[in-house]
Write a structure and sequence with these properties.
Layout (H helix, E strand, L loop, with lengths): L7 H52 L14 H13 L5 E5 L34 E5 L4 E4 L13 E8 L13 E7 L4 E3 L6 H4 L15 H4 L4
Antiparallel strand pairs: 1-2, 2-3, 3-4, 4-5, 5-6
């Protein structure tokens, strides 16, 4: 007795259904995978920065307040910090110091998580704040101009570092592949938003949600 096989029409219908399901699910799976990779990379970057901050403070007897006041401007002092941090961040493959937008930048322009107007620039574009570098591990950093006195109590922030975990490649969005931290006078590293409650992180304008700017994602993902 012969068993009846599938007709060509049935095979084509089945393949069409499989194709439709794949078209609906694969992009979502790819997006979720990429975002998971960004979060993992951020945790690694934060660990690296934490070790670098403590090592930098140890080099200066445990206190960075008053250390970076050797140059005429805070922007010039940022160059000194970048040089001091290089050995602790694993070395640089490229550095950027000027604001000539015709030159290749180390730290690309980043858009807010909510895609509204506004952006964050590296040292070679836009506002020219801080100095930038590409690390040997492929990440990009932008260092804000330091406060020589390291701010005020209780935070005592000396300077901030923005990190794009996949370098100059996209999506270049705050809270997706770019995160921010600060280093205090004792070399302790804190993510932006670390003083906020979970509810504040998920509701405030700078928060980590579809309507927020994305800055607090730096703290939120480290809590997960």
């Amino acid at each position: 007795m012969f068993k009846k096989g599938f007709t060509l029409a049935e095979v084509l219908i089945t393949l069409s259904i499989i194709g439709i399901v794949a078209a609906l699910t694969v992009p979502s799976l790819v997006k979720d995978f990429k975002e998971t990779q960004y979060k993992i990379a951020w945790k690694k970057a934060f660990s690296m920065a934490s070790q670098a901050g403590l090592a930098l403070a140890a080099k200066h007897d445990g206190d960075l307040a008053g250390v970076y006041v050797t140059k005429n401007t805070a922007h010039e002092n940022a160059f000194v910090i970048r040089k001091d941090l290089e050995r602790y961040l694993g070395g640089y493959v490229k550095t950027c110091d000027n604001c000539d937008q015709s030159k290749k930048i180390c730290f690309p322009e980043h858009k807010p998580l909510n895609k509204h107007s506004g952006s964050v620039h590296g040292s070679c574009s836009g506002n020219g704040s801080g100095v930038s570098a590409i690390l040997k591990n492929g990440m990009s950093i932008n260092m804000t101009d330091p406060d020589p006195a390291c701010g005020t109590a209780p935070n005592w922030i000396c300077f901030g570092i923005q990190i794009d975990v996949n370098g100059t490649k996209g999506p270049n969005i705050i809270g997706k592949d770019m995160f921010e931290l600060s280093i205090n006078r004792n070399g302790i590293v804190r993510p932006t938003g670390w003083t906020k409650t979970n509810n504040q992180i998920l509701t405030e304008w700078s928060g980590c949600h579809s309507g927020g700017l994305g800055w607090y994602c730096s703290a939120w993902y480290l809590r997960q």
